[in-house]
Design a protein that fits this description.
Blueprint: H1 2-18, H2 21-34, H3 38-45, E1 50-56, E2 59-66, E3 69-77, H4 82-94, E4 102-107, E5 113-120, H5 127-138, E6 146-156, E7 161-170, H6 171-181, E8 190-193, H7 220-281, H8 283-290, H9 294-304, E9 309-317, E10 320-327, H10 333-337, E11 343-348, E12 353-355, E13 360-369, H11 374-377, H12 391-397, H13 400-416, H14 418-432
Parallel strand pairs: 1-4, 4-8
Antiparallel strand pairs: 1-2, 2-3, 5-7, 6-7, 9-10, 10-13, 11-13, 12-13
Helix pairs in contact: 9-13
Length: 433
């Protein structure tokens, strides 16, 4: 199960290494690290530190690797009892702030066989299996006789191959040293080799089999998982609260809109009621103002018609004015009434009929009322018949009281007709006697 998981993780790491993401994140991390203060950079660099163990002349030399730099950290005597060695190593390890610092056994490079080889790029996904198959061809050993590991030195995208550095060490040479650490002196995380002299750098490979590596529990992983779970829970809670707040805001806004709509409807109803009330109150005054001005019309007809013309009937109904009467020159009445400010489109109704009793023509004229300002209707007299144009100045010069009296007298005389004329003549004759 662990081997299958390790193979899957190795495939994922190799596929990730083919992409430009590792180089980008390395550059980005370096830029971000350079922005931090010096003490923070040192603290972050300390997280990648490791303890390197080297067996030399019955001594265990402990190196401290920190931020790519190495320094001797202490020495332990291999002749001491295992309990003493374990206690001394624990004291050295307690001086390191990082409790998860890896412990690596580093052996001289002369004890290992290093071989550079070129392989197709497609072999990267199963590189360890390919190297195991090629072990007896590239080295004098078989795969089960050695501990081996590799690292990819270069990749050629054009040629689709890669340069692999294979490091091999016989099991018979490494097993005695591993057995010395099996007594509990230190739990090894990896076995590496020096690039040159001790303390000058290492290859960063791991010859130690996976089943013999130290089982360390990284507390940062559950802590990070817990923080990620807490962040996810807070995100879900924040989103739910945001949705709830938005729903509450929408509900409040809907209530405000409904209230405003109700108020607007009430205002509209009140405005309509007010307009209806104003219209009802002004109906009679509008009817009177828009209808024909009877006194002004009578005044205008009195001044406009000649003395040989009198009216028998004046009817105003259904927005129509109908005039009936008799005149010696009834045919000329249309031209006379056409200039009236009160009558529009005067026309004869039927035919002009002569009256043998009065020797005059009986006529019926219909006209449309014209809108006249009621405030000036009574103050605008018509010109006398026959002198329509010149009568305006004379009418303006006449006093309003005299005009009203003349209008009343002329109206009475013309409304009375021939009968009034006969009575007037009889009264004059009686007075002469």
């Amino acid at each position: 199960m662990n081997e299958a998981l390790d193979r899957q993780l190795a495939r994922l790491r190799t596929r990730l290494a083919k992409t430009p993401l590792p180089r980008f994140f390395a550059w980005w991390g370096g830029e971000l690290l350079a922005c931090l203060p010096e003490h923070w950079r040192k603290r972050l660099a300390g997280r990648s530190e490791a303890l390197l163990l080297e067996v030399r002349d019955r001594e265990l030399v402990v190196w401290r690797e920190r931020a790519g730099r190495m320094a001797e950290f202490g020495r332990l005597s291999l002749d001491d009892l295992p309990e003493v060695q374990l206690d001394a190593f624990r004291r050295l390890r307690a001086r390191i702030e990082n409790p998860n610092a890896r412990t690596v056994l580093v052996i001289p490079g002369t004890r290992a066989l290093t071989r550079a080889m070129t392989l197709p790029a497609a072999a990267e996904d199963n590189l360890r299996q390919v190297l195991a198959f090629e072990m007896d061809r590239q080295t004098p050993f078989k795969a089960d006789q050695v501990y081996f590991d590799s690292r990819i030195a270069t990749r050629d995208a054009i040629a689709r191959n890669m340069r692999v550095e294979l490091v091999v060490m016989p099991r018979t040479s490494l097993d005695p040293e591993l057995a010395a650490f099996a007594n509990g002196t230190a739990e090894l995380d990896a076995v590496d080799i020096w690039r040159g002299n001790p303390g000058e750098g290492r290859h960063h490979i791991n010859l130690l089999p996976a089943e013999r590596r130290a089982r360390r529990r990284d507390m940062r992983l559950p802590l990070n998982l817990g923080l990620a779970a807490a962040a996810l829970a807070l995100l879900v809670f924040n989103m739910s609260e945001s949705l709830a707040n938005r729903a509450a805001a929408v509900e409040a806004m809907s209530a405000a809109v409904d209230q405003a709509r109700t108020a607007a409807t009430e205002v509209t109803d009140l405005r309509k009621t007010l307009q209806d009330s104003i219209g009802g109150a002004n109906f009679l005054s509008d009817k009177k103002r828009k209808g024909p001005v009877v006194i002004g019309l009578l005044n205008d007809l009195t001044h406009r018609l000649k003395d040989d013309t009198y009216l028998e009937r004046l009817q105003i109904e259904n927005n129509q004015i109908q005039i009936q009467g008799q005149s010696k020159e009834a045919a000329n009445l249309i031209s006379v009434l056409a200039s009236s400010p009160y009558l529009g489109s005067p026309r004869f109704e039927g035919q002009i009929q002569p009256d043998p009793r009065t020797s005059k023509d009986r006529f019926t004229i219909s006209a449309d009322p014209r809108p006249v300002d009621i405030s000036h209707a009574a103050d605008t007299p018509a010109a006398p018949a026959g002198t329509v144009e010149s009568g305006k100045d004379a009418a303006d010069a006449a006093p309003k009281d005299a005009e009203a009296a003349n209008v009343a007298d002329d109206t009475v005389k013309k409304a009375a007709g021939p009968a009034a004329d006969a009575r007037a003549k009889k009264e004059v004759a009686d007075g002469a006697r």
